[in-house]
Amino acid sequence: MSASRAADGSALRTGLSQFALSIAAFGTLAAGAVGAAFFFGDDDAGGPHIELALYSEQNGPPPLLKNRSSLDALDANAAEPSLAGVEYDEGLPEDGGDGEANITVTEIASNSSAAPTALPRSPITGYFERTAAGDLPKIGPDGRTPAEAYARPFTAIPGTSRISLIVGGLGMTQKHTLAAINELPPEVTLSFVPYANDLQGWINKARAAGHEVLLELPMEAYDYPNVDSGPHTLLTSAKPEENLRRLNILMGKATGYFGVTNYQGARFATDAAAATPVMKALKDRGLVFLHDGAAARSVLPQAADQTGLNFTVADRIVDAELSADAIDRELLALEALSIQNGKAIGVGFAYPVTIEQFRIWAEGLKAKGYQLAPASASAGVAPRAPKS
User: Fold this and answer.
1) DSSP H or E run through 336
2) CB 188 within 8 A of CB 223
3) Measuring CA to CA, which residue among 385, 388, 340, 383 is closest to residue 189?
4) Quick check: is 152 in a domain?
5) Whole-angstrom Cα distance, residue 266 to residue 250?
6) DSSP secondary structure letter of residue 387
7) CB atoms within 10 A of CB 172
8) Which of 210, 346, 367, 374: CA 20 to 30 A from 189?
9) CB–CB of 85/68 below 8 Å?
10) Number of folded domains in the chain?
């Protein structure tokens, strides 16, 4: 027993000695590594790292993109859309902040075309009248209308069916408005809410990117005022003078639009007495009216015909059902209508899923044999350059 205990003690002492030597060796190596990093390391190496992708031209097909549309955040009843359908750069750190990130730029090829030609900045001399309500559209001294002055130029390809897209509800949500301006082709027409902050600034940005612009006119809905369309809503109960006063306030909020479209207005569209003076005022201002087609039993076409107003009704609202698949089906229906009629107009709202599906669909439109056209062209407006 005593011999065994002596052997065990000797083995224990040997193990402890080896462990102590190992700890000492590891500590020496670690201290050396820390010292080397301190004197020779890169301070930025441990910071956050972001990789961006830029696109340049290529001759081949575009890279396959994952459909990022997600409907988990859809709220069809929300006053302002807050949807997950388009990725934005809001997560990038501000320049000069404490968390400034290192950025590596990776170039990815793309078949995108050159930057679009900007449309003339508004207002264009000779096509507006300065009033107490603001600068209102006016037919020019040479007979050209604001519709002709502000519409996007378009050259039709003979024998090719054309399709027009309108994105409405813009100006109220910054990231959605910027996505529509920057991500959609310049042939897509953009429609702005008159109550938007810095409305003229938004219109200037849109036209600088090549987009023609519509102004939305809030009109009385059946459940007004439960559906609140703002303080200058055109009403069936208002006298013609009051509606014209409201119309001037709305039109005077900005310049640069070639025409107007409705916001709501199912009830207003059924009242010829209320609608006809408005139609005449729009005709006298040299504008066009492009209706979204949502109103049933509408008298607006007849009122426009009586006053000589250029009035066009869109063929489909493409995002009545908010899903990528449903929007794609509506876009396919527009293609069929354009084959049947030679042209078709689709209207959507500034939901990210709508903007994303419009972008994806437009990329392949030319290969299908269709031509993307501004809405003014489908409404029969032939732009004429104003005299300088």
Assistant:
1) helix 324-341
2) no
3) 383
4) yes
5) 19
6) P
7) 17
8) 367
9) yes
10) 1
Model pTM? 0.72
Report the distance separating Cα 154 and Cα 344, nearest Å: 15
CATH of the domain at 324: 3.20.20.370
134-137/128-131 β-pairing? antiparallel
**Pick from 226, 219, 207: nearest CA to 260:** 219
| Comparison of pLDDT for 355 and 46, the residue scoring more | 355
Identify the band that residue 35 occupies on the pLDDT scale cut at 50, 70 and 90.
low
Q: Residue 149: give the domain boundaries.
A: 128-378
Across residues 128-137, what is the average pLDDT?
A: 97
User: If 0-12 CB within 10 Å is exposed, 13-18 middle and 19+ buried, where does residue 183 land?
Assistant: middle
Which class for 197: exposed (0-12), middle (13-18), buried (19 or more C-beta within 10 A)? exposed
Beta pairing partners, 372: 163
Average pLDDT over residues 92-112: 34
Residue 108 maps to a domain: no
Distance, C-alpha 378 to centroid of its chain: 21
Cα-to-chain-centroid distance, residue 92 = 20
In sequence order, the 6+-apart residues with CB closer than 8 A to the CB of 199 are 171, 192, 193, 253, 254
CA proximity to 379, closest of 267, 289, 300, 275: 289
At residue 300, the 3 state secondary structure works out as helix
Number of neighbouring beta carbons within 10 Å of residue 188: 27
Domain annotation covers residue 23? no
Tell me if 58 is assigned to some domain: no
pLDDT 10s digits, 192-213: 999 999 999 999 999 999 999 9
Q: How far apart are CA 79 and CA 324, in angstroms?
A: 21
- Total residues found in the chain within this entry: 388
Omega prior to 123 cis, within 30 of 0: yes
Average pLDDT over residues 181-185: 97
